[in-house]
Amino acid sequence: MTHPEQDDRLKEECGVLGVYVPEQEAARIAFFGLFALQHRGQESAGIAVSDGFRVRMHRDMGLVNQVFTPEVLRSLPGHLAVGHTRYSTTGASVLRNAQPIYCQSLVGEIAVAHNGNLINARELREEMERDGEHFETTSDTEIMARIMVRHMHSGPEVAVREVMRRVRGAYSVTVLTPKVLIGFRDPSGIRPLTAGKLGEGYMVASETCAFGPVGGTPTHELEPGEMVIIDSQGMRFARGHDTEPGGMCLFEFIYFARPDSVMYGTSLYTARERMGQTLAKEHAVEADIVVPVPDSGIPAALGYSRESGIPYREGMMKSRYIHRTFIQPDQRMREMGVRMKLTPLEDHIRGQRVVLVDDSIVRGTTTKQIVKMLFETGAKEVHVRITAPPIKFPCFYGIDMASKGELAAAVMTIPSLCEYLGATTLGYLSIEGAVEAVGRENGRFCLACFNGKYPISIPPDMSKHAFDDPPEVGQMAALANGQLRLID
Ligand SMILES: O=P(O)(O)OC[C@H]1O[C@H](OP(=O)(O)OP(=O)(O)O)[C@H](O)[C@@H]1O
Ligand SMILES: NC(=O)CC[C@H](N)C(=O)O
Ligand code: SF4
Ligand SMILES: [Mg+2]
C-alpha cells in the first residue's frame, strides 16, 4: 500500500461543515456540501447527525461518494449534522482516526470535525492520560473532543473557551451535540471558517463554495478566536479567546481553497488572476504563449497573459478521471504520473516560446516532468512562472509538508533549481506580491512556510505520528532551532 508519507505532492488539509435545518434531513445536505469540500481531503469522509436526542455517525476511508450510499444516508436521521473530509496531519490515515471524532461521557455525547493541526498535542495528551483520560484514536482532534465533552454541562461557550485556553495550533472546528451545532476558529485564524443561512436554518463550512450547491448563503467569516453557536434559539456569535499573532494561511489563497470560494472578502479566482498579473510585472519575459498547468494554474495564467499581452493558450489536457491517490510513489511511476494526468497539445506547443504558469513548486517533480514534456513536444523555450513564493519551511498547521525533507526551494538556489527543472528561466512571485494580490492592505497572514516566521512556535519534537504505536512513518522533517532536520 502507498503510505501517504511517500507521496511527494503538496497535500490538502481537511474540510469541515455543519448544518442545522429544522424539519429537514441534515445528512443529505451535509453529503452534498462535502462534495464541495472534497478537494480539501481525500483519505476519509464522515457525517455525524442528531435528531435532537441521539447522535449517529458514519465514516469510512475513501471519497465522499465511496463512503455514502442512499441507504447509509437514510440510516442517519436528524436535523443537525457535522461532516468532514480528511487529509491526515496528526495520526495515521486509518479508519479509527477518520472524522468526525465521536466522544461520549456521563454528561453527554459529541462529534467533532477539525481542520488544522495542534502544536501541543503531545503534552496535552500526556497530561490528560495522567488524569485518567482514555484515548481511542491517535489523532490530535480527539484531544479537543475530550476537553469539550467534559465541559459541555457548563454550556457550549464555556466548553469552547476551555478548548481555546488549553490547545495551541491551527483549528477550524465544527461540533455537534444532541441539540446544538457549534463552530469555532483558532485565535490566530489560520484556517478558514464561514457561517451563514440555509433556508430557515444555518450552516458553517470551511469554504464558501460549500454553500451554493445546497442553497445556502455565507454571511459571516468567523474572526480569529470567535465561535458560532446554533440551536433552537437561532445563531449567535461569541468570543472564545483574544486574537493572537498570525492570520489566514496564504496558501489557501494561492492553491488550497477552491477558486470559487471567498476569503477575506476576496474571490480566490480574482486573487489568483491578480497574482498572475503581478507575476508578469515582477518576471516579464518575451514569449509567444502563456500556458497554465491545469487546473490550479489557470486563473494565474489568465492574469499573466492579460498583464503581459502574451496570448493565453491551453497547452495540455488534464484527465479528469485519474485520481492522485492512484499514482504510485516510486520515481518511475511518478514520472509516468504526470503523463497519465496531463497530455500535451502538440499543435499549440510546437515551435513556441512558452510561459508555463503554475501555483507552486514543492519538490519540483511535477514541474520538472511538465517542462520535459513540453520540450519533447517541440517547445522552443519554457519559462516557468510560479505564484507561490519559494517554499522553504515545512507547515505544521494542517498542510502536510512536514514530512518533506526535500523542499526544492530550501535546498537549491533559484538558478540551480531552474537548471534542475530544465527550464529556460524561472520566476517566483514575491511574498509582498502575493499578499498584495489578495488585497487586504493590513492583512493578517501566516507566511511561515515562505519566511520561517511561525506565528505559533513549534516544539522540536513535532511528529505526525506522535501517538501511532508502532509509528507508521518513513522519514520526517522537523524544524529545530530554526533548522530543518530529518527525524526517523
Ligand atoms: O511537489 P511538486 O512536484 O513540485 O508539485 C507541485 C504541484 O503539485 C500540485 O499539483 P497536483 O498535481 O498535486 O494537483 P492539482 O491538480 O490540484 O494542481 C501543485 O498545484 C503543483 O502543480
Ligand atoms: N489536515 C487536517 O486539517 C487534519 C486534521 C487533523 N489534524 C487530523 O490529522 O485529522
Ligand atoms: S506554514 Fe504555509 S501552508 Fe502552513 S499555514 Fe502557514 S502559510 Fe499556510
Ligand atoms: Mg497543480
Keywords summarizing the entry:
single chain, 488 residues, alpha+beta, Glutamine Phosphoribosylpyrophosphate, subunit 1, domain 1, Rossmann fold, 2 domains, seven-stranded antiparallel β-sheet, six-stranded antiparallel β-sheet, 25 strands, globular, disordered C terminus, binds 1-O-pyrophosphono-5-O-phosphono-alpha-D-ribofuranose, binds glutamine, binds iron/sulfur cluster, binds magnesium ion
Describe this structure in words.
The protein is α+β, with helices and mostly antiparallel strands and 488 residues long. The protein folds into two domains: 4-244, 4-Layer Sandwich (Glutamine Phosphoribosylpyrophosphate, subunit 1, domain 1), CATH 3.60.20; 271-438, Rossmann fold. Helix content is 28%, strand content 26%. The chain has a seven-stranded antiparallel beta sheet. The relative contact order is 0.12. The model is unreliable at 1-8, 324-329 and 470-488 (pLDDT under 50). The site of magnesium ion has 3 residues, from loops. Magnesium ion (MG) binds at residues 293, 296, 358. InterPro entries: GATase_2_dom, Ntn_hydrolases_N, PRTase-like, PRTase_dom, PurF, PurF_N. This is Amidophosphoribosyltransferase. Pathway: Purine metabolism; IMP biosynthesis via de novo pathway; N(1)-(5-phospho-D-ribosyl)glycinamide from 5-phospho-alpha-D-ribose 1-diphosphate: step 1/2.
Summarize the helices and strands and which ones pair or pack:
Blueprint: E1 15-20, H1 26-35, E2 44-50, E3 55-61, H2 64-67, H3 70-74, E4 80-86, E5 101-105, E6 108-118, H4 121-130, H5 141-151, H6 156-166, E7 169-176, E8 181-185, E9 194-198, E10 201-205, E11 216-221, E12 226-231, E13 234-239, E14 248-249, H7 250-256, E15 262-263, E16 266-267, H8 268-282, E17 289-292, H9 298-308, E18 316-318, H10 331-341, E19 342-344, H11 346-349, E20 353-358, H12 365-376, E21 381-386, H13 408-411, H14 414-421, E22 425-428, H15 431-438, E23 445-446, H16 448-451, E24 476-480, E25 483-487
Parallel strand pairs: 14-23, 17-20, 20-21, 21-22
Antiparallel strand pairs: 1-4, 1-10, 2-3, 2-4, 5-6, 6-7, 7-8, 8-12, 9-10, 9-11, 12-13, 15-16, 18-19, 24-25
Bound molecules: 1-O-pyrophosphono-5-O-phosphono-alpha-D-ribofuranose, glutamine (GLN), iron/sulfur cluster and magnesium ion (MG).
